[in-house]
Amino acid sequence: MDKDKRPEVTLRAMEPEDLDVLYHVENDNSMWNISTSNVPYSRYALHNYIADAKNDIYVDGQVRLMIEKENGKVVGVIDLVNFDPKHHRAELGIIIMDKFRRRGYAHAAVTKLISYAHNMLQLSQIYAIVDVENKVCYQCLTSLGFAGDSILHDWLYCNGSYHDAIVLQFFIEKQ
Fold first, then answer.
1. Which of 44, 43, 26, 47 is nearest to 35 (CA)?
2. What is the DSSP secondary structure assignment for residue 7, as one 8-state letter?
3. d(CA 26, CA 151)
4. Which domains, from first to last, does the chain contain?
5. How far apart are alpha carbons 160 and 93 in whole angstroms?
6. Contacts 24+ apart (CB under 8 A), 34-43
7. What contacts 26, CB < 8 A, 6 or more positions away?
8. I need a surface site. Which of 3, 13, 85, 150 has the fewest CB within 10 A?
9. Sign of torsion over alpha carbons 102, 72, 117, 64
10. What SUPFAM superfamilies does its record include (predicted)?
């Protein structure tokens, strides 16, 4: 996608109004093969999650942000999890809702998240664990400067079989 034609996105904290979006995303079992979740979440549990989240990576050990396009419509969710304050790194997670995929929203959101991670959180590294069959995600992240060749054999179990995963790293201070 042409750099000038990439969509503008905003990353913002979760609000109670995001409950329906989170409910949809967390309960979409087609996404479970790319996450560590394999159980549905109730509205009650997600309501409490939104209410209890401090949006402070040092308190929660993670930060989850909603991805909004220009008109304020939520197109996905992006988070930093497995935060390691000693080593200044965290794992990237991102979900773009079906109807907004392949339009540049993931690229724009990860770009914003890298800036946030560097300027506000002082992280030196973000990493992602990607199914080797997820070519779209791999291409998006490598186009942003993520790199890696470490294969985690039989790392992900989905649809009755194991899949290899690749660890991709982005070293913020080297960019």
1. 26
2. P
3. 27
4. 3-174 (3.40.630.30)
5. 23
6. 34/131, 34/134, 34/137, 34/156, 35/93, 43/19
7. 37, 40, 41, 46
8. 3
9. negative
10. Acyl-CoA N-acyltransferases (Nat)
pLDDT in 10s for each residue of the chain, 175 residues: 555 678 999 999 999 999 999 998 888 877 766 666 667 889 999 999 999 988 889 999 999 999 999 999 999 999 999 999 999 999 999 999 999 999 999 999 999 999 999 999 999 999 999 999 999 999 999 999 999 999 999 998 877 889 999 999 999 976 5
3-state secondary structure of 102: coil
Give this prediction's pTM.
0.91
**Helix and strand numbers, DSSP H then E, in the chain:** 5, 7
Q: What Å distances lie between residue 138 and 40, 132, 164, 169, CA to CA?
A: 27, 8, 13, 11
Tokens 């993670």 map to which residue? 62
